[in-house]
Write a structure and sequence with these properties.
This protein is an alpha+beta fold. It is 28% helix and 29% strand. A 3-stranded antiparallel sheet has the order 2-6-7, with helices on one face. Strands 3-4-5 form a 3-stranded antiparallel sheet, with no helix packed on it. Strands 1-8 form a two-stranded antiparallel ribbon. α1 packs antiparallel against α2. The longest helix is centred in the first third of the chain and has 24 residues. The termini are close together.
Length: 163
C-alpha cells in the first residue's frame, strides 16, 4: 500500500526557508558568511543543494507520474532574462488584476534570518520586465508552481501529491 503526501507549494518553500534558518548556527560556527554580499561559494552550494532536494525534486516527483515531463526549474538565487523555457515557483497573486507573474528568486535577511522573499516580475512573454528585485515579508506569502507546457500555456498547482 502506497501513501501519498499532499503538500502545498507554500509549505515546500517554507520548509526550505526553515532549513536555511536552521543552518545559520552551523555556518556561523565555522565563520562562514551567510547573508548579504559577503556570502561565499560554500554557502551558495549549500543553499543550492537544499533547494534542489527540498523543493525542486519534490515538485518533480509530484508531477512526473501525472505527465511525462522533464522540469526545467530556475536554480535558487539565480535570475534569468527569459523564463519562457522554465517551469517556476511564483508568488500566488492576491488579485488577478495583472497578468504578470512574480517568480521566486531567494530569501534575504532584513530583521531576522531569511525573513524576506525576493521575487522577480516577468511579463506576459515570460521575460524579466525590469532589473529590479521585489522584496516582500515571508509572513503570509503564498506560492504556486507554474508548469510550462510545451505548447506555451501553463498549468498552475497550489499543491502536489508525492509518494
Amino acid at each position: 500500500m502506497e501513501n501519498n503526501t499532499v503538500i502545498k507549494i507554500t509549505d515546500l518553500i517554507e520548509n526550505f526557508r526553515q532549513a536555511l534558518v536552521s543552518m545559520v548556527p552551523c555556518i556561523e560556527k565555522i565563520n562562514l558568511s551567510w547573508t548579504g554580499n559577503e556570502t561565499y561559494d560554500q554557502w551558495d552550494h549549500i543553499t543550492s543543494v537544499l533547494y534542489e532536494n527540498l523543493v525542486k525534486f519534490p515538485v518533480s516527483w509530484g508531477l512526473i507520474e501525472e505527465q511525462e515531463l522533464k522540469l526545467e526549474i530556475p536554480d535558487y538565487d539565480m535570475s534569468y532574462e527569459d523564463y519562457s523555457g522554465f517551469s517556476f515557483i511564483a508568488l500566488l497573486p492576491e488579485r488577478h488584476v495583472e497578468s504578470a507573474y512574480y517568480v521566486f528568486h531567494s530569501f534575504v535577511t532584513r530583521k531576522k534570518a531569511f525573513d524576506t522573499v525576493r521575487i522577480i516580475k516577468i511579463d506576459d512573454n515570460e521575460k524579466r520586465s525590469d532589473g529590479i528585485f521585489v522584496e516582500i515579508p515571508c509572513v503570509n506569502s503564498k506560492f504556486i508552481f507554474c508548469y510550462q507546457k510545451s505548447e506555451g500555456n501553463m498549468d498552475v498547482y497550489k499543491e502536489i501529491s508525492i509518494k
